[in-house]
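Milestone M4 deliverable, item 7.
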Amino acid sequence: MPRTTPDWSPESEEDYEFARRQLKKRFAQWRATVGAAVERDAGETPIHYKWAFLDGHLTRWTREDLDDVYLELHPAKVIVDDDDLTDVLDEAKTFIRFLDETGLLDPHSDSPDVLVDHLDAIEEQFRHNMADASRYSFGKRMWMTAQSEGVRLDDRASIDAFIADFNARPLAQRDAILGPGLPPRPRATGRFTPPGTPPKARSTKRRKRRR
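Output delivered:
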């Protein structure tokens, strides 16, 4: 029988995809109701990173979760123009408000007011971390180089041509961009996480990693 009720703490990739689609659909409907712009990718970032890198519970949020997503994972993995950084945190605040007003925010979460206030409190640190190149992952360095050379990240042929060209460059040139000791022949894999970089592949076994 087809699923009718999503599991907000899914155990499998299939259950996650169903929950993700349902949550984004509800988010879009709520945004329309409150007069907010309905954007196709709204909610994708917090939902994806909660599943792929944190505890996997899509509607349970704490201040620690927000720190992980916006002070660690975003600086490492996501490419965002400086002018759009405020929009990133505004989306997070709107997502928290949506979960609260629709009754979806898990009762083991921090209170919505605490979560929103915390996003305000970390904005300066978020901006600092996003500008700190030492935090950039291998993948982010790769895609930033591609973008700087005019590669469109939504164009597979353009990406493949860039990777082939990059792999043919002298090792010293590649190391200057990505850092020494990194794999010499990177591959573009995984789905993109708009507006940033391809996420790390998720293990088939559910990970519940907390810091």
